[in-house]
Amino acid sequence: MDLTTNWRKIRTHFNKSFSSNFHVSIASIASDGNPTVTPIGSMFLNDNQAGFYFEKFTSKLQESKKKNICVLGVNSRSFFWISSLFKGRFSKNPGIKLYGELGVKRKATPKEISRLNRRMKLTNGLKGNTYLWKNMEYVREIKFTKAEEINLGKMTKDI
After folding, report:
1. Edge-to-edge strand list for the sheet holding 68-74
2. If pLDDT is split at 50, 70 and 90, which confidence band does 5 have?
3. What gap in Å lies between CA 147 and CA 104, rounded to an integer?
4. DSSP state letters, 63-113
């Protein structure tokens, strides 16, 4: 899957993934050399094959010696899966992996904070929202280098 040509499709897929999961999974290698996966509910994709996430609870990503990561976004909407299972095929790929490199940690811009607040608006006022997404100050940039659709055999063959 070409990253540049399909970037709009990738962004649409990740938006659907967030709306059905409230997170993506970021895989990296921890400082002890073991693989680790971190759920991130605050990752955003920009227009330029790059993105960022708010860094608050990401201790394993911060410890990582290597900055290479893989982000998995899965569209988990029940109707999407049930109808696909009924038909025996997916109309769109249910998962996309993005490979990239972590960039610098920096102070979030007002625009980035606004994007987070818009995404979390549905849960605003809930105790968990305050705990998880209040006082988000820092973001970590990500530059993506490769995209790959997941392969589920016959179910994804004709996409």
Report:
1. 35-40, 24-29, 68-74, 95-107, 138-149, 50-54, 43-45
2. very high
3. 21
4. H-SS-EEEEEEE---HHHHHHHHHHTS-SS-SEEEEEEEEEEEEEPPHHHH
85 Rama class: left (phi>0) / alpha (psi -120 to 50) / beta = alpha
Query: Which two structure tokens, joined as six digits, stand for 95?
Result: 């998962």
Nearest-10 Cα torsion for 150, 156, 157, 159: -100
39-72 pLDDT, tens per residue? 888 899 999 999 999 987 666 665 555 689 999 9
CA-CA distances (angstroms) from residue 134 to 12, 61, 106, 125, 147? 26, 20, 17, 11, 31
How many whole angstroms separate alpha carbon 140 and alpha carbon 133? 15
Tokens of 148: 């790959």
Tokens representing 28?
A: 């990296």
- Provide the residue type at 93 as one letter: N
Structure tokens at 127: 């105790």
Closest residue by Cα to residue 27 from 79, 64, 55: 64
